[in-house]
């Protein structure tokens, strides 16, 4: 068994209000699996299990809402994946390219910056190979 990092995308969907913006998170989840395909399947199940409205208490900007699973963006193998990750283990990474040092520094500081993602995992299992549409989450 090896360790993988799954990039699971979750979003907030209003229950009754029309949405113009979709707040979303990329949650990076450690997954132990025999292969990247198995890790992808486990990550999808995890994402679907995380859907819901926190027993009816979830609101976003004052509106009743729920979490929806958008997809698994990518699966990466953890460095030294045959061993259990520990303190200061690198578990995942993203590659970027900036057109200037200043833009890269702005990005690192959390400021608005135009950069390009250069994903080295183009052949890995990913959500773009499947269609996942916004939907109403299962009710508790």
What do these coordinates show?
By secondary structure, this protein is of the alpha+beta class. It has one domain (2-93, 121-129). Helix content is 16%, strand content 33%. A 4-stranded antiparallel sheet has the order 2-1-4-3, with helices on one face. β3 (59-60) and β4 (63-77) form a beta hairpin. It is flat. The model is unreliable at 125-140 (pLDDT under 50).
Question: Topology of this structure?
Answer:
Elements: E1 2-14, E2 24-33, H1 36-49, E3 59-60, E4 63-77, E5 96-98, H2 101-108, E6 115-117
Antiparallel strand pairs: 1-2, 1-4, 3-4, 5-6
**What is the number of beta strands?**
6
Global mean pLDDT? 81
Low-confidence spans: pLDDT under 50, at least 5 residues? 125-140
Radius of gyration (CA) equals 17 Å
Estimate nothing, just give the exact number of structural domains: 1
Strand order of the largest sheet: 2-1-4-3
Separation of termini?
34 Å
* SSE pattern, N- to C-terminal: EEHEEEHE
Large-scale geometry:
flat
| Strand-pairing-aware structural class | alpha+beta
Tally of individual helices: 2
What structural keywords apply?
about 140 residues; alpha+beta; four-stranded antiparallel sheet; two-stranded antiparallel ribbon; about 15% helix
Outline of the structure:
The chain is of the alpha+beta class and 140 residues long. It has helices at 36-49, 101-108; strands at residues 2-14, 24-33, 59-60, 63-77, 96-98, 115-117.
């Amino acid at each position: 068994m090896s360790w993988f990092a799954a990039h699971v995308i979750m979003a907030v969907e209003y229950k009754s209000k029309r949405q113009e913006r979709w707040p979303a998170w990329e949650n990076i989840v450690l997954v132990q699996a025999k292969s990247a395909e198995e890790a992808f399947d486990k990550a999808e199940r995890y994402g679907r299990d995380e859907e819901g409205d926190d027993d009816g208490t979830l609101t976003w900007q004052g509106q009743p809402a729920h979490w929806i699973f958008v997809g698994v963006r990518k699966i990466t193998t953890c460095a030294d994946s045959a061993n259990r990750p520990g303190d200061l283990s690198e578990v995942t990474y993203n590659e970027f390219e900036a057109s200037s040092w200043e833009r890269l520094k702005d990005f690192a500081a959390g400021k608005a910056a135009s950069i390009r993602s250069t994903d080295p995992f183009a052949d890995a299992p990913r959500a773009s190979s499947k269609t996942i549409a916004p939907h109403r989450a299962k009710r508790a």
